[in-house]
Amino acid sequence: MNEAPIGFIDSGVGGLTVVKEALRQLPHENVVFLGDQARLPYGPRPAEQVVRFTWQMANFMRRKGIKMLVIACNTATAAALSTLKAHLDIPVVGVIVPGSRAAVKATQTGKIGVIATEGTVRSDAYAKALHRRNDQLAVTSLAAPKFVPIVESNEYTDPIAERVVRETLTPMVAAGVDTLVMGCTHYPLLRPFIQQTMGENVKLIDSGAETVSEVSVLLDYFGLANDQSGVGTRAFYTTGHPGMFKEIAADWLQLDDIAAKHADISTEADHYVEDIATPGQTIVVASSNKGKVAEIAEFFANRGVKVRGLADFPDVVPVDETGTTFQENATLKAHGYAQQLGLPVLADDSGLMVDALDGAPGVFSARYAGDAHNDAANNAKLLAELGGVPAAKRTARFRSVLVLAHPDRPEDDVVAEGSVEGRIGTLPEGDNGFGYDPFFFVPELGRTLAQLTTDEKNTISHRGNALRALGQKLDAK
């Protein structure tokens, strides 16, 4: 998960000012940026529409397997931050609170100005955030609707930009503020003209740059920081024309190797959708057994894959295991749950096969002592069946068959198998396992499966071997 990228979304190229600061402060992190240039500006739009557009960007990013989402747009932050934070299970960071916090620290006179889009000013989000910290502050807000088009048209260094900035900020100069929040991530590209107009004694606050400092803290707090060496990867997407985007991005970020790609997000859901991620990013394990789910989650963690179990879906209807082989049962479960949940499902059917019992318990391993019995009862029956069988003839193996099924592509099942050899002991040993693990002795290790750590078990277990085989098949695809 730590190598998963941080996602940055904006209504256009303005969010690149946040990305620029991220590349400076967090050079090891992998970054994905999406600018919705096709539908800018967001400022004049109704808040409800901005929320829908923001969800479409967020859902696009979720498909990229991001570990954190930065809403690098003040208008989108004001409209959609609360709903995204309420629904997503990754950290979501907006730009308004960090900018407000920095302004409160910077002001000496208590007079703070905010320039932003019409939408942000209309929401009063900055004034509210500032007054939550100090209700004695005098806050002057001013909409600057002409700034965004100038930046997006790549005219932010032209004489016309200087004139527009000077004319727009006349009321703010008259307000006598000593601190000015640039409450739109496009505005820092106009910083030289803004500073010139406001005067050198006015402190300019770049809300985007302040946001990256908060991102850095949250990465450490949640244990998400990428500890890889070297420069991270960068991917850039725009809903507009990649050529124009690349020209601005290359100039602002001072990068020569930017490869901007067009993204069509019109078909993305404009609201929260449960686990929208595609296979390879999120899978559901067709089991409520916490031990099995944890074992699979541990293996897939290094691949950046989120794993959930059936316990997370209390309304799911159980799928009957009526097959006569491990693969038949795994296929029934994978297809049955994938169709119900509309998500990729990894189903495992595995069991213990004892040579002295002609391969039993086999597909009945989980219910060897009957449907209503537990692990202890299953183990008791196994030991009773092996009563009098000498140690040399208590050879056995665990066998696992995995089937990964996609709800929309039932013909594309990925099937993998794995096994581990051992013998059945007479006394349980170890407490780091479940099922028959405490009695399954691995001769070459001199320990039972229940005496191994999770990492050790994944290295040699039947399910670990099957998962590795599955991984190889997924990589090949």
From TrEMBL:
This is Multifunctional fusion protein. GO terms for biological process: cell wall organization; nucleotide metabolic process; peptidoglycan biosynthetic process; purine nucleoside triphosphate catabolic process; regulation of cell shape. The gene is murI. Binds 1 Mg(2+) ion per subunit. It catalyses: ITP + H2O = IMP + diphosphate + H(+); XTP + H2O = XMP + diphosphate + H(+); dITP + H2O = dIMP + diphosphate + H(+); L-glutamate = D-glutamate. The keyword Metal-binding applies. It comes from the Bacteria. The active site is at 73 (proton donor/acceptor), 184 (proton donor/acceptor), 349 (proton acceptor). It holds the Pfam family Asp_Glu_race. Its cofactor is Mg(2+). Gene3D superfamilies: 3.40.50.1860, 3.90.950.10. Keywords: Cell shape, Cell wall biogenesis/degradation, Hydrolase, Isomerase, Magnesium, Metal-binding, Nucleotide metabolism, Nucleotide-binding, Peptidoglycan synthesis. Mg(2+) binds at residues 320, 349. Pyrophosphatase that catalyzes the hydrolysis of nucleoside triphosphates to their monophosphate derivatives, with a high preference for the non-canonical purine nucleotides XTP (xanthosine triphosphate), dITP (deoxyinosine triphosphate) and ITP. Seems to function as a house-cleaning enzyme that removes non-canonical purine nucleotides from the nucleotide pool, thus preventing their incorporation into DNA/RNA and avoiding chromosomal lesions. Provides the (R)-glutamate required for cell wall biosynthesis. InterPro entries: Asp/Glu/hydantoin_racemase (IPR015942), Asp/Glu_race (IPR001920), Asp/Glu_racemase_AS_1 (IPR018187), Asp/Glu_racemase_AS_2 (IPR033134), dITP/XTP_pyrophosphatase (IPR020922), Glu_race (IPR004391), ITPase-like_fam (IPR029001), RdgB/HAM1 (IPR002637). HAMAP family: Glu_racemase, Non_canon_purine_NTPase.
